């Protein structure tokens, strides 16, 4: 099966910068871990990652933020941070946290390469949090990846696929084809029709884009007062090409309490 559904090139020159002020909060100065100090000069670090972890997670019924709760032996957020930092092409990972936590992040967050870690303050809505993270990416970043902290088990193969497509000049969304029969119903629960699932996919994250494309999409969304829970949708509305690549069942989103047990089980599976 092909990794993506369509192909194309985007004209993303002359993009105006995002205009709101930076909200960057640097991490504490502590000794770097991992590969710090051993940078390979032949490696091009052109990827910037924004991990959106600004939600309250109220649907889990817990007072603790779901991105801070443990999944498969470590906090959910730490899974994602370490997955992206394990890559040599990643220049920086920006973690967008709720305002109450951004000034004093949990100490376990710095169990990684702090030289490539930034913490930013989340907005009222998800798209505002993404903008805050984008503003903190250094100039050398040309590929922007957006990932939800509520999807802690992201695989390196999925990351490879979305980044590879973004480097071709279009957006890429990790997704899985819909396999269940879909029914459209009315307000009384009565079936109106059976929906053809042939071309339907379930969108996940990570999503990757040429940086200028994603910035232009957010500039236009701000100008037009458009909000979205999906960055690809903002690019689609401007006519930019966005393709689907194969995601993973491990890319599930933790939304409800029962999802934590499911994520623990999925973490044991080898793909």
Q: What is Rg?
A: 19 Å
User: What about the largest sheet?
Assistant: 8 strands, mixed
Helix share, percent:
10-25%
Count of DSSP E strands?
12
Approximate strand percentage: 15-25%
Annotation field: number of helices: 7
User: What is the 3D form?
Assistant: globular
Mean pLDDT: 86
Largest sheet, spatial ordering of strands: 1-6-5-2-7-11-8-12
* Low-pLDDT runs: 5-15, 19-38
The N- to C-terminal Cα distance equals: 16 Å
Order of helices and strands: EEEEHEHEHEHEEEEHHEH
Q: Which structural class fits the helix and strand makeup?
A: alpha/beta
Explain what you see.
The chain is an alpha/beta fold and 271 residues long. The chain is 23% helix and 23% strand. The chain is built from seven helices and twelve strands. The chain has helices at 76-85, 99-102, 126-135, 156-166, 211-223, 231-236, 258-266; strands spanning 24-25, 47-52, 70-71, 74-75, 90-97, 117-121, 143-148, 171-177, 182-185, 191-195, 201-210, 242-246. Strands 1-6-5-2-7-11-8-12 form an eight-stranded mixed sheet, sandwiched between helices. A two-stranded antiparallel ribbon has the order 3-4. The protein has a two-stranded antiparallel ribbon with strand order 9-10. Strand 3 and strand 4 form a beta hairpin. The two termini are 16 Å apart. Mean pLDDT is 86; it is low at 5-15 and 19-38.
